[in-house]
């Protein structure tokens, strides 16, 4: 569904589902001012169009012994398509890497790596990241405290 086709009701549905993806359809319908059947049709249309990609459970990292967040800037020797593709393919298969972005600026990639402790990060760095062909520089920054974390996208900029 193109972004310009999202009306006020669609935006309300998306905002509510971003807060609680397990909300019952009857409750969602009541919250957005629809009856259940049209609400369910709209949710299905948002799913089918790819606006809603999937539903997930957000797990508290500390409760599963993953309290360490490392932001890693990676620079490649050459920024050619084959090297970029090879790096991305290598990173896609690493469970410690929960986010990876191709960047502008000094570094080519920015990764967010989640691990239980410094020893686990050192192991990941030595046995995986430094072994990816074409990597010329790795700079790691450790998060001391998470000040804000949101998964819900801000939708206020969308117009009818």
From TrEMBL:
Species in which this protein is naturally found: Skermanella stibiiresistens SB22
Key words of the record: DNA-binding, Transcription, Transcription regulation
Hydrolase as UniProt keyword: no
One BP annotation, GO: response to amino acid
MF-aspect GO terms: sequence-specific DNA binding
Protein name per its UniProtKB record: ArsR family transcriptional regulator
Signal peptide limits: none
Stretches assigned to coiled coil: none
InterPro entries xrefs: ArsR-like_HTH, AsnC-type_HTH_dom, Dimeric_a/b-barrel, Tscrpt_reg_AsnC-like, Tscrpt_reg_AsnC/Lrp_C, Tscrpt_reg_HTH_AsnC-type_CS, WH-like_DNA-bd_sf, WH_DNA-bd_sf
PANTHER family documented for this protein: LEUCINE-RESPONSIVE REGULATORY PROTEIN (PTHR30154), TRANSCRIPTIONAL REGULATOR AZLB (PTHR30154:SF34)
The organism's taxonomic lineage, starting at the top: Bacteria, Pseudomonadati, Pseudomonadota, Alphaproteobacteria, Rhodospirillales
């Amino acid at each position: 569904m193109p972004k310009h086709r999202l009306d006020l009701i669609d935006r309300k549905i998306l905002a509510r589902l971003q807060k609680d993806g397990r909300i019952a359809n009857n409750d969602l319908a009541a919250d957005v001012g629809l009856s259940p059947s049209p609400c369910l049709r709209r949710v299905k249309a948002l799913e089918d169009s790819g606006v809603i990609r999937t539903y997930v459970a957000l797990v508290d990292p500390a409760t599963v012994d993953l309290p360490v967040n490392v932001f890693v800037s990676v620079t490649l020797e050459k920024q050619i398509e084959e090297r970029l593709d090879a790096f991305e393919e290598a990173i896609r298969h690493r469970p410690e890497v929960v986010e990876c972005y191709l960047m502008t600026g000094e570094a080519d990639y920015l990764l967010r790596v989640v691990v239980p402790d410094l020893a686990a990060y050192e192991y990941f760095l030595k046995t995986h990241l430094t072994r990816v062909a074409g990597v010329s520089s790795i700079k790691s920054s450790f998060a001391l405290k998470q000040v804000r974390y949101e998964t819900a996208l801000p939708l206020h900029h969308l117009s009818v």
